[in-house]
Amino acid sequence: MAEETRTQCRQRSVTAAQAEPRDLTSAGNTRHRALAVGGILLLVGCSRFASEKRIALRFTPKENVTAAIPATEGLTASRSIEVAPLTDARAVTDRSLVGENREHSTPVPIRATSSVEQFATTVLKKCLAEWGVRLGPGDLVLRGEITNLLVTEDQTYSTAASMRFRLEDHSGNALWEGIAIGDAHQWGSSFKEENYNEEISDALKRTFANLVSNAGFQRAWIGAAGVSTAAFSPAELKAKILEMMKSGISEETVASYVRSVKVTRPPNAEEILDWKKTGVAESVIRAAVQERR
């Protein structure tokens, strides 16, 4: 069946159910019941009820990868970076899980037919090369683990991604450690493989752009002194949260980021009230407080 939008499926089913007028005779009633059942089956077919869906992972961002070039300010001529294979540290039992269709009461899992961590590693290398980073053995080693990557499909597609990175010298000493996050959102057709790949690609691309744009990462990259990750004051963390909210990053992703960063101290009662008044979500505030006890 050709891919259709959710609206087209519903309209086609309604048209089929109304194609023949109701007849009060026994034969007419029989025809009507058969037609109604056919319309229901057609609707079920459009909904594509299934126990799962498997997709082949492909890097297909909606925009060219160079359209989201991170702010490197000439750093690409700095030291070379060897990218170690990413590891999958997501809190899931099935490492092939990359999404869920939640259009109905029972979510349908979306699973990849190949390794998620290998795919993400390939995309990371591609993005870095496109952005002019010198790749290969020699100076630094970049290690990372995927802590979140999931597409959720309801009436729209939404994706949250987060990864923990560590930049080392070749003796294994940590020069910088931190979290990079990314997300994606779009309309699309139900259960469409193309939409799932676009979402995953865009979320990964934004995650890697945020990594390379990180000031601490850049200082470690060029070999600047004092590159340890600084702790945020509550005011600095609030400003960062508001910046992320303004950029349209999902509440779940912001909360994940807050749990990952260091703070000089947890926000006090007055600061919590101020955060709430400025629109910071309850889950984000809870992440800032609970993780710092």
Task: Characterise this structure.
With 293 residues, the chain is an alpha/beta fold. It has three domains: 6-47; 55-222, ABC-type transport auxiliary lipoprotein component (Rossmann fold); 234-290, no CATH class. It is built from nine helices and eight strands. Strands 1, 2, 3, 4, 5, 6, 7 and 8 form an eight-stranded mixed sheet that branches. A hairpin with a 6-residue loop joins strand 4 (97-101) and strand 5. The longest helix is centred in the N-terminal third of the chain and has 22 residues, at 26-47. The chain is globular and about 55 Å long. The N and C termini lie far apart (54 Å).
Radius of gyration: 24 Å
Do you know the CATH architecture of the largest domain? 3-Layer(aba) Sandwich
Gap from first CA to last CA = 54 Å
The helix/strand order is: HHEEEEEHEEEHHHHHH
Total E-strand runs:
8
What proportion of the residues form beta strands (DSSP E)? 15-25%
Instruction: Count up the domains.
Output: 3
Reported for the largest beta sheet, the result is:
8 strands, mixed
CATH level 1 name of the largest domain = Alpha Beta
Number of helices: 9
Report the average pLDDT across residues. 80
Secondary structure category: alpha/beta
CATH topology of the largest domain: Rossmann fold
Low-confidence stretches: 13-25, 40-48
Oligomerization state = single chain
Q: Estimate the helix proportion, in percent.
A: 40-55%
Let me know the CATH homologous superfamily of the largest domain. ABC-type transport auxiliary lipoprotein component
